[in-house]
Write a structure and sequence with these properties.
This protein is an all-alpha fold. Among the domains are: about 70 residues, no CATH class; about 45 residues. It is about 65% helix and about 0% strand. The chain contains seven helices and no strands. α1 runs parallel beside α3 and α6 packs across α7. The longest helix is centred in the middle third of the chain and has 24 residues. It is elongated and about 80 Å long.
Length: about 170
């Protein structure tokens, strides 16, 4: 027989976890609370050792909430079935046309201006640091970094450049 205090503690812990994982979205929070409640009820029915009920219920709640989050993600994923017939046909045609279109020839390092190509080769192929490249080409490391950024925008136009807030450290050295 499982004590009422253990059931109450497991239920409250499940509610707290559901609220935390919902991140303030009230619709998602309600679905996660339902999942946590179901998990505690399932654990109450399937737990064989009353001394391990809290851990057993916590594990069940964690799994049920994870599964429910996955179901919500799948439900909210845009797909072709949820579009009305005419608009859906046009979108499907656009998707197929884009998929079958021949890709444009990408710009290569050899197509870059000579100095930019040289800097990119030194950095990417030869593995030189910005400081060493700056010493080789007679520019500051900051200028070399700007040259690499310019080359990246030429090689992959329209790409989203990573943003960095004030005081936020970079993930790579350089």
């Amino acid at each position: 027989m499982i004590a009422d205090d253990d059931i109450k503690a497991a239920y409250e812990r499940g509610l707290a976890q559901a609220r935390q994982r919902a991140g303030g979205n009230s619709d998602v929070e309600q679905e996660l609370i339902d999942a946590a409640t179901s998990a505690v009820m399932w654990a109450l029915e399937h737990c064989r050792d009353a001394t391990t009920f809290r851990q057993f219920a916590a594990s069940a709640v964690r799994r049920w909430i994870g599964r429910q989050l996955h179901r919500i993600k799948l439900k909210n994923r845009p797909n072709m079935q949820g579009i009305d017939a005419q608009d859906g046909a046009e979108r499907r045609f656009d998707y197929l046309a884009a998929r079958d279109a021949k890709p444009e020839r990408p710009m290569l390092i050899e197509d870059l201006p000579e100095e930019l190509g040289f800097v990119v080769r030194l950095y990417m192929v030869d593995g030189y640091t910005l400081r060493d490249i700056g010493m080789l080409v007679g520019k500051s490391p900051n200028t070399v970094a700007l040259m690499l950024k310019e080359a990246a925008s030429m090689l992959a136009p329209g790409r989203e450049a990573p943003t960095r807030n004030n005081g936020e450290k970079r993930l790579t050295a350089g």
